[in-house]
Design brief:
globular, 6-stranded mixed sheet, 507 residues, alpha/beta
Length: 507
């Protein structure tokens, strides 16, 4: 091969990428969905790749993250690696990180009778799901999913905010708005291929940071307390504003946020769960790095966000990984033994969020993990499957995440003057909520409600976006109050109370 470029083959999908000789791999690999959770600083180890053919030099950052055995096996940090200056054969890298299903929604909805097509988009921090809908019948005609192209700027909303502020200050290259608009434009084009002229409207929903970054709104106010932005309203665009190839008569709107870090994805979820029409209390819990909670009925809704951190996505777990090939996704306890389920039915190489919750729940049931979170034998290591283990610090990270959700849930109920037994249903939303085993969630004390009330409700954000798209008039919503949990004088005490795991009699 000439000195102009290096061909890199990404396994197991056999995707080929050309990278200039000597260039950082990060820019090229990010275009194919490889995530860089810490934004490319080399601190987290989340972008590890293994060299199967060819070679990559070992960097100082590699030595801080990987053991000598792992380095000898070919593991490197993709964010720090540079393509060789000269290479005689393609560089082959094992990169399983981006094997994941994106949650969509198959719920049938009534049509409007309006002629034309509409597109509903759920713009998530990690993934994008979009559907094209026949406005007459309500039928879904096509589905597209994609990883969020902003991933190289960080895996969570606070990382994206910091990156956006650095870009605006001239301290970092890139444009988080342009990159996501461009990818969404391609998704829209694929969905509408051959029938572009029939697309009448596009509706987007997402968390507050995604809303702001897509719309080009200043995110500075979201970088510090009290996280009160002035740009929460619906944002409207014309196709030409975004460079999208749709009729000039098409309308594009990003639905309004509810406050702080409670975005239009929760507004959509309130519609999708029937909360806005219910006489009885309904709860919605969207689990992620930014846990969002809404509880209410047609007479009023209270909502809040709570900083759960990346533990539910295994982002701060030492052997944590996304729900990809090789991840321990589920764990059961049979006759005192851990029985793991590994995605792809291969040797385990890490653990994802649902597996983390399952493993700790199994440890609590067996007595290997105490209610305090301590590993009972004092070893500070809890074996899960093969080489995959949990460390004491991993369990503490889960305790912090579940305490954030549990305390927020209790405080919102208290604000309504209600008790858990008064709820009609509790909906767990989003990809993590959909794949989480409810019994395990209850065992660790994520929420304290009767089992029969809890259900995994899939992608309520996308379903609600379709409802907004198909509504013949603006949906009637109850009064929605955004609650700042950090300002609640009882939050810290409630958070501390929720740190422990329930004892067997409580779970």
């Amino acid at each position: 091969m000439s000195g102009e470029g290096v061909r890199i083959k990404l396994e197991p999908l056999a995707i080929e990428v050309d990278v200039p000789c000597g260039a950082l791999l990060m820019g090229s690999l990010s275009g194919h969905g490889v995530e860089f959770p810490c934004g490319g600083t080399g601190e987290c180890g989340g972008c590890g790749v293994r060299v199967l053919a060819g070679s990559l030099e070992v960097t100082d950052s590699d030595r801080k993250v990987f053991s000598e055995e792992q380095l000898d096996a070919g593991w490197r940090l993709a964010c720090q690696a540079r393509a060789p200056e000269r290479v005689a054969e393609p560089l082959v890298l094992e990169c399983l990180q981006w094997h994941m299903d994106v949650l969509t929604d198959n719920t049938g909805l009534a049509g409007t009778g309006r002629r034309g097509l509409g597109i509903a988009i759920d713009l998530g921090t990690t993934t994008i799901a979009a559907q094209i809908v026949d406005l007459v019948s309500g039928n879904v005609l096509g589905v597209e999913t994609e990883l969020n192209p902003q991933a190289p700027f960080g895996s969570d909303v606070m990382s994206r905010i910091r990156a956006a502020l650095e870009v605006s200050a001239g301290h970092r290259r890139g444009d988080l708005t342009a990159v996501v608009r461009a990818v969404l434009g391609k998704i829209v084009a694929r969905l509408a291929s051959g029938c572009e002229d029939e697309v009448a409207e596009v509706v987007l929903v997402g968390n507050t940071v995604m809303h702001h970054l897509f719309s080009g709104c200043d995110v500075e106010a979201l970088s510090h307390a009290p996280f009160a932005s002035s740009y929460l309203d619906v944002q409207r665009f014309r196709p030409q504003d975004l460079g999208w190839f749709l009729p000039p008569t098409s309308t594009i709107r990003f639905a309004r946020c509810l406050g702080g870090f409670v975005g239009s994805d929760i507004l959509a979820g309130i519609l999708a769960t029937g909360m806005a029409q219910s006489d009885e209390l309904i709860a919605l819990v969207d689990l992620g790095t930014n846990g969002e909670i809404a509880i209410g009925n047609r007479h009023g809704v209270v909502c809040a966000s709570t900083a759960a951190g990346p533990a539910f996505e295994a982002g701060t777990i030492r052997m944590g990984m996304r729900a990809a090939t090789g991840a321990v996704a589920y764990v059961s306890l049979s006759e005192g033994e851990m029985k793991p389920t590994v995605i792809g039915d291969v040797e385990p190489r890490g653990i994802c969020g649902s597996g983390l919750v399952d493993a700790v729940a199994a440890g609590l049931r067996s007595g290997a993990i105490l209610a305090s979170g301590r590993i009972a034998d004092g070893s500070k290591v809890f074996p899960v499957a093969g080489p995959v283990v949990l460390y004491q610090a991993d369990i503490r990270e889960l305790q912090l995440a579940k305490a954030a959700i549990a305390s927020g849930f209790k405080l919102l109920l208290r604000r309504l003057g209600a008790e858990a037994r008064e709820l009609k249903s509790v909906h767990l939303a989003g990809a993590f909520g959909n794949y989480l085993q409810i019994e395990s969630a209850l065992r660790i004390g994520l929420i304290d409600v009767p089992r029969q009330l809890v259900r995994a409700s899939g992608n309520t954000a996308l379903r609600g976006a379709k409802m907004l798209l198909l509504a013949t008039e603006e949906p009637v919503l109850p009064a929605i109050e955004h609650v700042s949990l950090a300002a609640d004088p009882g939050f810290q005490d409630e958070f501390a109370n929720c740190m422990s795991f329930p004892t067997p009699g409580e779970a």
